Sequence to fold (268 residues):
Amino acid sequence: MQDNVTHSAGSTSAGSLSRYGKTFQERVVQALLLDHKWAEEIAEVLDPTFFELKYLAFMCKMCFDYAKRYRTFPTFPILVAIVKDELHHSADAMLQQQVIAFLTKIRGDEELGDLPYVKEKALDFCKKQALKAAIDQSIDVLGSDTGSYESVADINKKAVSLGASSTIGHDFLNEPDARFVKRNRNPIPTGIVKLDSKGILNGGLGRGEMGVIVAATGVGKCIKRDSRINIRYTGITIDGKSYKPWERIATKRGLIFARDVVESDELA
Fold:
């Protein structure tokens, strides 16, 4: 039996997500609510009209409008409240039924194993649509008397960068309180007691952090290259053997994590 749904105006199979089917499109909207980091990336290239179904385009627009105003994407309970208020003023009874049915469906949905695939395919599709639009715009620019190579290059450069992760940390100018937010860190010690002290690295380098050592010439910044402990992004090398940070190693002071090994430790 075919679903009685309202299609989004202006969407075509070539320029919409309809090729992936209804379930895929619903998963895209669901991902907007569950993965806000991904939502920020795809928001640059996802047009609500890409959705074949009107209720999904409506939900996507509600998410984007909220994010534009509050600089974050809504949680599920907040989205329900927003949609409820918006539909209260709508005369589209079918849209109301479809939205309510969709929200009810995803509220109890615990099968989320396919979301990584959905997010990857949706982002790839939207980025390609942005590039196609840039190519069309470039052709128009080249056909005009005022068109230039530089302007075409700028158009395509911008299109290629859309949808890419651009997180560089907190914008403390606009979010001054962000520096006071407590975070859970699971640092890996550098092995240098002074650097790992609470007043400097507080245990070592945490996931996603980058440490830059700055000091005057000749004070010993590079001397640790001869150390028996070599900490890398993918693991820790101790006496020429590679370990994962969470692997336990037998030492004279007992079994300890590789990340907790220090220069003075003797391996058992």
About this structure: The helical segments are 22-34, 36-42, 54-70, 76-88, 93-107, 115-143, 149-161, 193-196. The domain at 1-178 is CATH 1.10.860 (DNAb Helicase; Chain A).
